[in-house]
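[step 3/7] fold_predict: job queued, chain A
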Amino acid sequence: MEWTDIRRDLLARIQTGVWKPGDSIPREVELATQYGCTRSTVGRALRDLATAGFLERRRKGGTTVSANPVRKAPLEVPIIADAIRKSGKVASYRLLTCHIGMPPRVVSARLGLGPAGAVMFVAALYLADGVPHQLEHRWLVPAAMPGLEAEVLERTPVDEWLLHNAPLTRATIEIEAIDAPKAVADALQMPVGGAALLVTRQSWRQAQVIGLLQLYHAPGVKLSTAI
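[step 4/7] structure written:
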């Protein structure tokens, strides 16, 4: 069993109220026995939940469920495929590219990377009833998301992987109208220079920057959110 599987199960216990705020949870050795894995695997899952604000770990006092997890709770980031399905259309996903390399200078600066700071670049296309719905460009900090590889992204979009493995706690969002450059226009099957909507989101997990995301939409795509 992977640590991410254990994390999901432990988080479910917290979110469903099996473990309530202030409750002490079983020791690592007990959880390792339950899941049939090593203590280090359990420990990684617990550390991750503590970083996200769900657990409080004390050297001599054991581990308890945070009394106020809302303060550091993950953001509810929309799942693109779910939004397409809710509109009554069939959602599909294509991974266009995924590789490690040097980002553009402006991206490097926003992510706070040094001159040798490499990132994972992911480009993907989402379709609704076979029609391009959203082009996605992501620059991700590899150290912030161990286990994320191109093979995983062939079948699982980044937003779904993040939800289960590295939930976000903070983000900034910028929205602007642009003239679609050729690469974007070709992907969205629209005229070069036509009006397109660009949503840029930079995200963090506590103090650690996760990455920078750019979402491109052609005219006619409806976006909605709730605050």
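[step 5/7] annotate
The chain is about 30% helix and 30% strand.
The longest strand covers residues 91-101.
exit 0
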